[in-house]
Structures are given as C-alpha cells and as structure tokens.
User: What shape does this take?
Amino acid sequence: MATTAAATGDDIAGKATGKAAGKTAPGQKLVPLEGLRGIAAAVVVLYHLVLGFTARGVSVVPQGHGAFDTLAQFGLGLLNGSAAVAVFFVLSGFILSLPFSRDRRISRVLVALLKRWPRLAGVTVIACLFAYGLILWSGHDYKNAASITGAGWMASHGNSPIDHRHLTWAGALHEGLIAVFTKGEVRFDSPLWTMRIELFCSFAIFLAAPILFAIRSWPLRVVVIAMAVFTAGTTFPYTHFSDFLCGTVLAMLFSEGRLPAIPGKWALPLGFVVLYLFSFTYEQQLLIHAPLKAIMPAGDSAHFVWDIGAVLSILILLGNPTMHRIFSGNWAIWLGLLSFPIYLLHGPIMLTVGAKTVVAGAGLLGVNGSELIAAIISIMLTVACAVPLARLDQVWLGLLTRATKPLLVKPAAAPVVAAE
Assistant: This one.
C-alpha cells in the first residue's frame, strides 16, 4: 500500500455541496472524512511497524483453533494496510467527484486534469529525495536489523531492495517526479506504489464524474458504473478504478441529499460489520471469512470487500449525528492534514532510523526492547517530519490553484431582460 495511494489533504478539505443526513451544511468542510483518512494512515503505519520490527508480522496461525489464537488473528487482521489503501481510494473518488455536482464545464475538467500530476509530484519528489538522504546515511543497517529481528519486510527494504546503480539524487528525483507515476517504481519509498493508481484513476474520475452527474436517471447511472467495473476487471492495477467509482456514487448521493440517516441503534452494529470487512485477507483462514471467499471473483478482488467497509464508514460518519460530532473535532482536522505526509515519510524513516535503533539497542535492551524503542522513535520522527511537509504541501497547492485559476472559463452571465 495512500492511500495511498493516498487521498491528499486538499481532496478531503473540499467543500460540501449539499445537505447530508449528518447535518453537514453547505460550504462546510467534510471534517469527519479528515479523521477517517487520518485513521487509515495510522493503520498503514502500524501495519508496517509490525512487518518491520517483528518476525511473524501480522500472520498468526491458530493452534488448535483456540479462541485466543482466533481472536489474536482477527485483531491483527485489523492492521490491514491494504484495506486502509482502499479507504484512501474511495475517499479520493468521493472528494474528487464532488465539485462536478455543481460545475461540469470543460474548463473545469481540463484544469483538474492539468493540476493533478504536479499536485501529487510536488510532495512525492520531496519524499524520494528525503529517502535518498536517509539511505545514504544508514547504508545497509536495514539488513543488520533484519538479521536481529527476523523481519522479512525489513530484509527486503520494504519490498523494494536497494540497487546501488540507481542510488543517486538524480534517480530519486526521477522516481518521485516520473517513474513512480508511469511505472510504479518504488526503489526509494515503497509506500508510493499507490501513486500510479491515484494519478490515473483520478484522471478517469475527472472524465467520468461529469458524465455521471449529468445523467439524471439512477438506473442508467448504475448500468454505466457496472459496465465500468466489469471493463476494469480484476487485474492489478486496473481493478482499483472500482474503488474510486464507489466514492463517486457516494458523492452523487451526497450532493443530491440522498445519504441515509443512521440512527444510533444501527451505528454500532454497522461498525462491527465494518471491522469484520476490514479484517478480511486472503492469507488468513478464519471460518468467519469463508462466506466472503466463496463469492469473491478470481484475481485482485479482495479490495471489493474493503470498498464496502469504506462506504459503510463514510455513511456512518456523515449519517450518524454522534459519530459526525466526534469526528468533527480539531484532532480530526490535524490528523487529516498530516495523514498524507505521514504516509509518504513513515517507510523511509522505519527502514533507516528505525533499523539503526534496533542495531544500536539490541545488545543493551534485547531484541524486544530494541524493537519497541525503534517503533516509538519511528512514529515520533515521522510525525515531526510530517508537520513541515504538510505546510509545504499547502503552499504548493496554493501556488497551483493560483496558476490554474485563469484557465477556468467563467460561466456565461444570465441575459438581462429590460423592464417593460
């Protein structure tokens, strides 16, 4: 996995265009979705912490199918980085589609298309150059750390082994600017594998959303969306277009005031359903997931399950007054603001600073102690570095917005009719 592909800060900070059941007034930021995106980013970080600093990772094999082992496996299943990425994609589809509910001019579409790549590349370049500097400093300590902890993810450098032929600042610049989007190459910052999906599915949404909003018949909309999902199929990475389409459907319902109100008596049971769906993985063999596996199509299709969980999460946050209020606090705003930078930076920090901490502390603190300290330091440093990157991201977004604003064609003014 931001998200990530990850939904970006300006996406979630989009303005609401209609009145949802959760009392989101027109013009108000969709703050509860900021919190959801932040929680998804936190899940990705925790998932990689477990993969990077433990030998068994998130895989626990029940012994005798005891209740404790089964519960432990279910709990670790909730540290599902892939499910969190599906949340990012659904959120992107929702927020990127929403502006087209009120403005479907060709100029709006063109500006959205022109702005998307530089908007993402501005921060991915910084992330790759940052990772390059850390890799130069830490060398092969990730291998030494992996020999201590037995963590396969650490040994493989986050599933992106270092190739010294490409270990240059120019290589990092090229990856962050171009290769991560065109080829999905992630030699420096492995979580950026989502960026290719984020970019091209965003393009597809910018073209599809105006058409879907222009269609006023819901049966016809459903037919068009079903055809798009079938055409995308279940082959990576095309199948992830369906994640974005789920967000587009929610955006249409939201803009038309059709999102359902979720009373308190339904919010808790639906919350348990969300946890059940997000705990689903192909690797685990829990009997509770057998019904899902029985109906799943072949190919890269597990994210269909997570899409349903993401949709239910958004419906609960926007449709239940209590959850809407809880997720509308300042903590949600800050967590959402930092989520994309955290997603970009946590991998390189874990594989360098975290690895060095394990190597330095193993003799004094033991393996478990050094793993714990490495995880804590990695989290703290990631958050500290995410704050200035979030500020830079806001500045970059503002520059792009001002640069593309003249390209928007103003709507024609209504003709003035002289009084008799």
